[in-house]
Amino acid sequence: MRLSFLNAERRTLMPVHRSRREPTVAELLLIILEGAWSIVVGLYVTFINFWRTKVTDRYPHRDPALNWQPRPGYRGDFALITDRETGKLRCIGCQQCQNICPDGCILVVPEGKGKERHPKEFYIDAGLCMYCGLCVEVCPADALTMTPDYETATDDPRKLVRDIDYLRERGMEYDEVLRVQ
Amino acid sequence: MSLLSQISNWLRLTAEGLCQRWGIPLLFVDLLAWMVAVAVIIGLVLLIVLIFVYLERKVSGYIQTRLGPMRVGPIGIFQTAMDALKLLIKEDIVPRGADKILHTLGPILFFVAAMLGYVVIPWDDKAIIAKYVDLNIGILYVTAVGSVGIIGIIMGGWGSNNKWSLLGAIRSAAQMISYEVPMLLAIICVVMQAESMSLGRIVTGQQGAYLSGWYCWRPWLWLPLILFFIAATAEVNRVPFDIPEAESELVAGYHTEYSGMKFALFFLAEYANVFVVGLIGATLFFGGWLSPLGHPDPLHIPGFFWLMAKAFAIVIFLMWIRWTLPRLRVDQLMALAWKLLLPAGFLAIFIVAVVLLYI
Amino acid sequence: MTTETRTRTEELTINMGPQHPSTHGVLRLVVTLDGERVVQVIPDIGYLHSSMEKIAERLTYQQYLPYADRYDYLNAMGNELAYVMAVEKLLGIEPTPRCQFIRVMMAEMNRIASHLVYFATLGNDVGAVSVFLYCFREREAILDLFEAASGQRLLYHYLRIGGLRNDLPDDFCAGLGHFLSYFPSRIDEYDKLLTKNRIFRSRMEGVGHFSAEDALSYGVTGPCLRGCGTDYDIRRADPYCVYPQLDFTVPTFEECDAMARHLVRQEEMRQSVRILQQCLEMLPEGDVSVKVPRRIKPDPGEAYARVESPRGELGCYIVSDGSEKPYRLHWRAPSFYNLQAYPVMCKDAWVADLVAILGSVDIVLGDVDR
Questions:
Q1: Mean pLDDT by 10 residues, chain C (370 residues)
Q2: Does any domain span residue B179?
Q3: Which of B59, B60, B63 to probe by mutation at the A interface, max A CB count within 10 Å?
Q4: Residue A146 pLDDT > 60, yes or no?
Q5: With contact defined as beta carbons under 8 Å apart, do B302 and B124 qualify?
Q6: Which residue, A93, B206, B321, C168, shows the most beta carbons closer than 10 Å to its own?
Q7: B249 in contact with C at a CB cutoff of 8 Å?
Q8: Contact flag C21-B247 (C-beta cutoff 8 Å)
Q9: A71 contacts in C (CB within 8 Å)?
Q10: C22 Cβ under 8 Å from any chain B Cβ
């Protein structure tokens, strides 16, 4: 009886010689029993996993116990750090972020000279951005930060362009650049 | 007299009384009774299928350390109902170049074939849809109408004008025809034991103290039991025998090109078939509607409940298997049927015959 | 007298992909079938081509680094490592010991994560869906660690020329230690559930046979080569970072089939756990970065750095013309070479074997097309 689908050998981690001859009836019974046992073992594995703690993130829920929360230093949406009282941006409009950005998704229009230099316009196209974080690293004034806010989906790609008002408003929430601790 | 038959008898007597008063022939009552029973059963089956799909998603979720559906209704119990509703209102797409008639007939035939099997299931003591006929070849009838479904699958696969569908349909035909043989051999063993092909008689043959009379306790019927469940799993195209719709190989097999209600028909029929396997398995080996608490049931729990409980247990076991095992390859599948299960089936018949003759 | 009935049969040509559940991305396989047997397979690649090499020519050395993550997205740390090593070779910089250890740890964690995806997708391809989710559950734990260190979960941009983005966070080592404490038992679980399963074995054993000579002539590397019994691992053959200080074995199997490749990967996960445990013990204190000039302008010349990615030999070749931008950059992408061998492996296969073999080769389409 030829039963090529039940080729008889026990695999170990070390190389084994594969037996090409047909199994005898005794060997065949052994193979069937072993196969049945392997299925029982598999059923046991799925059974113990049935009772394990469930890992599902119940995403739209805000409860941290049910939902994944980004760690500090997560590279999400942008903010320009702003003084809460005066509303003054820390940014000095040096345009280094604009120059380092590999995608070219940042546009800074500076205004003023010397100490008074500040950005008149500041655009980040979050739809083009690849969240590499080079702009934050290069910032000499520690003015630009990435926030843990990852829910940036919109129905209109134009809404993804962050202008200076948006960045200032977001920046009110943060005192310092968020970094991995 | 069980609760179900009491209700049905009362209804029947009322209807007959009304007929006599209004001068309608009594044949009409029979027709009406059948139609009501069929409607009840189809509704019940659809409801059970919805519960099954929900259960399957929950069981698979829990096995995979997920939660399964959680959104629609408390712990997601209305999820499948909503999905069914969605399928109902979805656009029905017929691919260009498809054979429209076959494309439409395929799922209908498959669905009808799946539903026909329910006609002879003994739901309770003397509660069978075919009211007067506890069909004396009941089990043969179930397997026969079960195999009609293949034609629906082939129609769907061929009519879709899609090579993946065609491959799936051909695989399905080969598989279902092959596995019918060992399944019938396993069933024959039970028939020999019960000395009847009527499902009702097979159940009554299993009466005994508590659950001791069930055929699953007789060692010579263990081999048929295993054979039956392997072959039946293959018959209803479930893992590890789900090669006709193996989604990682054939996209979705024969229902690749189906959408909307036609897809829903395929889907419902598949789960209805799974439930038939549960019911038949419970009837053949686990005492059907017999109560494990003794006969008659001391707590007056209707036999219908016990049959359902047993069928659900079997189906949940099939789900457990499904979410554990990988799937076989098509040649291994055939080899398993013809080289292993078939000889084992003959061996089982031989064993049962010897035992029944000499012991 | 004999009667002979002839049935006219035709070969069936079907497109597997680019939209197909198990082509792992956008690979198109033009498959010619005779019934269920495969006559011919022609992989058609290029659907995910993203000009990764050309982009480098218009970006400075720092700016290109985030792109290196993006082409073999399952092995982002390994890609960064190859690129950073090549640039450091050009500049003649030697990173600090702590940096070297952390880089090795990141590469090995990424190897585990990548092999877990391999396990998951292979399980899914052969029909064992639960394995898919178990593997992703463990992978999430690694991604949490990556997120803690780098701030991202898939495309880390954590390595820098001459060092790292930042030192490890305080709780990183404890988190990794916890992961390593339970992960080996999870590997045992996959072993029981998938590898030892009779059906899985009959699906994988003897399937996709591919001799060591073929492997060498096709340039196949990584687990596919080690599954042919050839002991070739860049970590041993051309050691980099701190691998010479670490104690690990390179698993090889002689069977040359899909199962051998599978077992190599399973054993490699165990070895990666060993490496990570040693790294945690040996991790020195100190700085993680050396001073690098803000404008990187290497002298004209060329450099080739290679690492052992989960898929094989991953090389980065850079030619510098003395400017801020590379003159030419080339990736030696292991998946590309391994995919070439795929039609050879699929000789006399069944349709179902196609996906099992493709799974056992473990290609990443981003890596193939670049």
A1: 67 80 79 83 86 88 87 87 90 88 90 91 85 89 88 87 85 89 90 86 83 86 86 85 86 84 89 90 86 83 89 90 88 88 84 85 84
A2: yes
A3: B63
A4: yes
A5: yes
A6: B206
A7: yes
A8: yes
A9: 147-148, 151, 169
A10: yes
CB contact C123 to B (< 8 Å)? yes
Give the per-residue pLDDT at B75.
Answer: 83
One-letter amino acid of C105: M
What's the CA gap between C62 and C66, in Å, rounded? 8
Residues C67, C72, C78, CA angle at the centre, nearest 5°? 85
Given an 8 Å threshold on Cβ–Cβ distance, is C151 in contact with A137? no
- Which amino acid is present at B50? L
Residue C200 CA to residue C195 CA, distance in Å, equals 7
First to last CA, chain B: 34
Indicate the pairing of strand C301-309 with strand C37-44.
Answer: unpaired
Q: What mean pLDDT do residues B49-68 have?
A: 87
Cβ distance of C22 and B249 shorter than 8 Å = yes
CA dihedral B16→B18→B19→B23, nearest 10 degrees, is: 140
- Identify whether B231 is part of a domain: yes
Report the Cα B179 to chain-centroid distance in Å.
15
- Other Cβ atoms less than 10 A from the Cβ of C54: the count is 11
Check: CB of residue B326 under 8 Å from CB of residue C199: yes
Would you say C27 and C17 are in contact if contact means Cβ atoms under 8 Å apart?
yes
Distance from CA of A171 to the nearest CA of B (A): 35
Rounded to the nearest angstrom, the minimum Cα separation between A99 and chain C is 10
Tally A–C CB contacts below 8 A: 96
Q: Which amino acid is at B184?
A: L
Which pair of tokens denotes residue A152?
A: 């940036």
Kindly determine whether residue C263 and residue A13, on different chains, have CB atoms separated by under 8 Å.
Answer: yes
Mean pLDDT of A127-139: 87
| Helices (runs of H) and strands (runs of E) counted in chain A | 4, 5
Give the pLDDT band (50/70/90) at residue B134.
low
Q: Which two three-digit tokens encode residue B247?
A: 């989604």
Tell whether B325 is within 8 A of chain A (Cβ).
Answer: yes
Q: What is the count of structural domains for chain B? A: 1
A15 to chain C, minimum CA–CA distance in Å?
6
Task: Provide the β-strand partners of residue C31.
Answer: C14, C41
The residue type of C139 is R
In a domain, B46, yes or no: no
Closest by alpha carbon to A77, among A179, A157, A153? Answer: A153
Contacts of C259 in chain A (CB under 8 A): 11
Query: pTM, whole model, 2 decimals?
Result: 0.85
**Residue A42 in contact with partner chain C when CB distance is under 8 A:** yes
Which chain A residues are within 8 Å of C170, Cβ to Cβ? Answer: 181
The DSSP annotation for C177-215 comes to HHHHHHHHHHHHHHIIIIIT-HHHHHHHTT-S---HHHH
pLDDT of B148 > 50? The answer is yes
Which of B44 and C265 is assigned the larger pLDDT? C265
C203 part of contact set with chain B, CB < 8 Å? yes
DSSP code, position C222: T
Q: Is residue B217 part of a domain?
A: yes
Q: For residue C62, how many other CB atoms are within 10 A of its CB?
A: 21
Q: How many CB atoms lie within 10 A of CB C154?
A: 13
Q: Which residues contact C59 (CB under 8 A, 6 or more apart)?
A: A102, C67, C325
Does A16 have pLDDT greater than 60? no
Please confirm whether the linkage preceding B296 is cis (ω < 30° from 0). Answer: yes
Range of the domain at B307: 85-358
Residue ranges per domain, chain C?
Answer: 12-369
Report the C-alpha gap between A127 and A75 in whole angstroms: 14
Of C95, C87, C84, the residue nearest C158 (C-alpha): C84
The verdict on A130 touching B (C-beta cutoff 8 Å) is no
**What CATH superfamily classification does C12-369 receive?**
Cytochrome-c3 Hydrogenase, chain B (1.10.645.10)
